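Obj.: predict assembly geometry.
Materials: sequence records (below).
Method: joint structure prediction, all chains together.
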Amino acid sequence: METVDQHIEDILYSVSDPEIPVLSIVDMGIIKKVEKLDDHFLIHITPTYSGCPAMDTIEDDIVKAFDEEGLKAKVKHILSPAWTTDMITEKGKKALEEYGIAAPRDASIDKAALSGEKNQIKCTNCGSMNTKMVSRFGSTACKALFQCEDCGEPFDYFKCLR
Amino acid sequence: MSDINKEALYDYLLLLGDNSMILGQRLGELCGHGPELETDIALTNISLDLFGQVRNYFQYAAEVVADGRTEDDIAMLRKEHEYKSSLLVEQPNTDFAYVIVRQNFFDHYHYMLLSKLVDSKDEQIVAVAKKSIKEVEYHLDFSSTWVKRLGDGTEESRQRMQDAVNELYRFTRELFKPTETEERMANLGIGADLPSMEEDYYKQLHALLEEATLEVPQGEVFQYGGKEGRHSEYMGYILTDFQFMQRAYPNMKW
Ligand SMILES: [Zn+2]
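Observations (raw structure tokens):
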């Protein structure tokens, strides 16, 4: 995201992904541009996945957050450049981990983990590497389901998308 | 762009969207009925991806015609013969083997198609294709894994897979037989040149079937017609379900 007025950034920061409430949409990397037009701000957002059902909610939440500050915002959906997990900020990745979702790993580890190789993803509960994939698809399209073989914890892993 | 090409572009976007939409609807029918929890989630997530892609195509199609039609009108309010999906994607969820084989036959095609469309001369098609291909890579991987696992599995799973392959193989060639619109769009550098993809498609597919210890049907008579609106009797049932809300409560919104 290009630099914008601190107040505007704060407003955007207050909006989070409805499915991952600890993750701000700014840290998720889906805000691509903020345009200040005559009587409103135009927020350009890019979807994580084409069918992500959270996008409509996020759009409403952005408009509402601006409205609460007495400002008007409109949202424009853009597809290019396509979102990748590299766009999640370091702060965002940390928030994911603390929330219990393993953050996306680099492409080679991701590939090994998703093809069923064990011990690739760190358990978000106890930190053990003794984990295995249970399902390539987890609670949402962007996540896969893993389980820790030490503490038994099932947890989501945010799949790498490039 | 001339009016005639605009009309063709609109038609092309529907061709692209309809396959994903009807397959997405078929997969949606499995929501809560998948053979096991994870597979159920996977199939419905694939459905969701496909519907997301359809929305991108149809929003663009609505922009192209610019006559007040919305993405929902385009998706929901056409008559059966106006849907341009291929016969393959409307085939029923007979059993899990059929679901996987249908998916895999489509995924191979879908992935190849998108890898051509990322070089289209139409910027918006490029954007949709670049977005979609990342998702479809997962679909192809998922269905291929299951083809191998069930084909090279027990006697029963192998037999069921072979039955599904034998039944569905005859619908594959339609994917590569261009309609007039597809030919025009390919010539304009906007659409994919389908016949040029066919050889690679069968090479990849046959290699996978072989790895899965499944036999490639021989001397097959291929079936065509869906892309030109001549559907099998399954299509009517799909649309009855799919269009029910819009027909019963016109213009309803979520
Ligand atoms: Zn653990």
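Conclusions so far: Chain A touches chain B through 23 residues (CB under 8 Å).
To do: check interface contacts against the pulldown list.
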